[in-house]
């Protein structure tokens, strides 16, 4: 690996330097001959593309999980673009990938069981080769390609990698995992490129905008070739007429990737060759709350701008720590006819994508009666201009981005709604009488980050000394400055203090980081 490519000042990247030294021990080869193999235990068993942009070998994460992968050699955090079998990692001992004599490339686990294989049992296969494009190919002695990783994308598409009706980009389940998640990018049966959330409970298409038809979204369903591709300049074209260009288009040497991210957004990235960081150059959705499934059933999503999930009054998080499962009612949701029903106002909230019925020019009262009369109706919204009414099934609520103020959810008065701010004037949810207080709401409202902070704080308070080793990237093999790491983690935790006033200013953060790094 050419160290000239990584022009990162070593002083400012105490962690990084160690990682790069570690990587640079690998010898560059881009070919694996028939009958040979790569071993998980040997760090130098890596194929590198001739121009060194891509590397291919075993990529390890966590305690003992390794994947046969292709990644960008020079991105700061190792960016994996392809994996052989993302849902079944291999053991850190004894696993290997072999180009067998019968022509198949096979990934085996410690016990010899097959984790993945190419179905190329042809004695014509002469070698495996990692190309400059990031494509791993099996070639015959004449150079003809018999199998290529480009035909089996994981969550990422690279320049000149053809996207077809047979391929799909499937997001990781969450950051910190490589397993298949629920969001994907694909050509739908009507020839249109779409994004879908396909989870255990609901499945729903959220891009392009489901409120418009194919042509309203600027696409066509007439061309059944179903192919899409983007070039090195960052120009994407598809047979359904989806087209976009990266703003840095024209710069040929920029490394790019199109990735179906774990948060449900599809993004085109450009690599900044000086920092090793990825810059977003295009994304399908500008507001993540429009991604279905982010907050799960019955929950409210707020763009802050990062999406933040919460439960409406009378509901609580179904599985603390996992917003995908949404919120569940704290009351008996099977309402009987005789039971008293009360509506609660949720200002600036839209119920997106799950409408049960729609009526134009109706009064507020008849709108409410319609909802009461249909057992499937959980809520309704009423818009004053033209008196449109929407009845909704029980699905994800959505908070409109314009609601910045601390709005009181759950005004018991039906007619007390704000008529000024948003397109949808009012939002009402139907609850089973009595328990509409917000009790128990915030107590369960804990994200992964807050849990992490809480756990680390407790460890520090209890005088545990091993906590820093536990949270620093294991790939550093313990080669880092304890005091620097401690400072950085403590700084990070102070930035996410509940109490806004306890958070440090940006200036003091930068100051503290510079001081910490100057110690090295
Ligand atoms: C090989 O074939 C098996 C069985 O048909 C299939 O499950 C597997 O996905 C194929 N592998 C590749 C890499 O195409
Ligand atoms: C259909 O799309 C393909 C790929 O973009 C393109 O080459 C072809 O010309 C299109 N066909 C028509 C009839 O527009
Ligand atoms: C980094 O990218 C710029 C274009 O943005 C290019 O001019 C420059 O040569 C690149 N540097 C290296 C070391 O590749
Ligand atoms: C909920 O209401 C139904 C119908 O009124 C009743 O059969 C059921 O027992 C109630 N469940 C609880 C947990 O109160
Ligand atoms: C929608 O509401 C109207 C009354 O406004 C009713 O006649 C119609 O049956 C409803 N449709 C559905 C699918 O519930």
From TrEMBL:
Gene3D superfamilies, alphabetized: Bulb-type lectin domain (2.90.10.10), Laminin (2.10.25.10), Transferase(Phosphotransferase) domain 1 (1.10.510.10)
Record's keyword annotation contains Glycoprotein: yes
Keywords, in A-Z order: Disulfide bond, Glycoprotein, Membrane, Signal, Transmembrane, Transmembrane helix
Instruction: Using the record's annotation, list all stretches that form the Bulb-type lectin domain.
Output: 23-151
Q: Name one GO biological process term.
A: recognition of pollen
Secretion signal, residue range per the UniProt entry: 1-28
The way it spans or sits in the membrane comes to: Single-pass membrane protein
Q: Which SUPFAM superfamilies does the record cross-reference, listed alphabetically? A: alpha-D-mannose-specific plant lectins
InterPro entries linked: Bulb-type_lectin_dom, Bulb-type_lectin_dom_sf, S_locus_glycoprot_dom
Q: Does the keyword Signal apply?
A: yes
Location within or outside the cell: Membrane
**GO CC annotations on file:** membrane
User: What is the name attached to this protein's record?
Assistant: Bulb-type lectin domain-containing protein
